[in-house]
Amino acid sequence: FEAAPRALGFEALWRRVEEGLAAGGERPPLAGDEGRRAFRESMLRLFLSDLVHLHVRPPRPAVEVSVRPVSSPLARIQATERDLVTSLLRRPVRLNAIARAVLLQLDGSRTAEDVLEALAGKAASGSLEIDDGTGRIRDETAVREVLAREVGTALRSLARGALLVE
């Protein structure tokens, strides 16, 4: 959970479990190879219960928003037609209008400021509606204020949702 949305290899996860137990003044119930085997079996049971995901080749979503973020190519294609996209963890993620518009801009060529400018242009042309909860905002200054807040929020949300690539 602490590493999400990244995946951890078995060895790294086992070390974190041992460290967490030690920090709490505890020891693993079973030592050495026997403890590792029991942990492996527990992970398999959690996988079979659909509580954890196991990967042969884990996805590598970005956990931080880079200067020029890149969204998942699949999610970008899906977002051209709908607000439900697939994350790098193969989970559905529903996007609001601004997050969807932001995701569509993230091809690695734009900064957050560039995305803000692009969305402000779309709002000015009428191809993107900005709503403050009471109705559509038409004033350019007010649109920019909302977008200035929402673009950063959307970028962080896309990273948490495993929609940005490293």
Describe the structure.
Helix 4 (97-105) packs across helix 5 (112-125). The two termini are 19 Å apart. A hairpin with a 5-residue loop joins strand 2 and strand 3 (92-94). The longest helix is centred in the C-terminal third of the chain and has 21 residues, at 140-160. 49% of the residues lie in helices and 6% in strands. With 166 residues, it is mainly alpha-helical. The strands form two sheets. A two-stranded antiparallel ribbon has the order 1-4. Strands 2-3 form a two-stranded antiparallel sheet.
Keywords for this entry:
166 residues, mainly alpha, two-stranded antiparallel sheet, two-stranded antiparallel ribbon
State the gist of this model:
With 166 residues, the protein is mainly α.
Largest sheet: 2 strands, antiparallel
Distance between the termini: 19 Å
How much is the radius of gyration in Å?
21 Å
What structural class results from the helix and strand content?
Answer: mainly alpha
Strand content is 5-15%
Order of helices and strands: HHEHEEHHHE
Residue runs with pLDDT of under 50 for 5 or more positions: none
Outline: elongated
Q: Would you count the extended β strands for me?
A: 4
Ordered list of secondary-structure elements with their pairings:
Layout lengths: L9 H14 L8 H17 L21 E2 L1 H7 L4 E3 L5 E3 L2 H9 L6 H14 L14 H21 L3 E2 L1
Helix pairs in contact: 3-4, 4-5, 4-6, 5-6
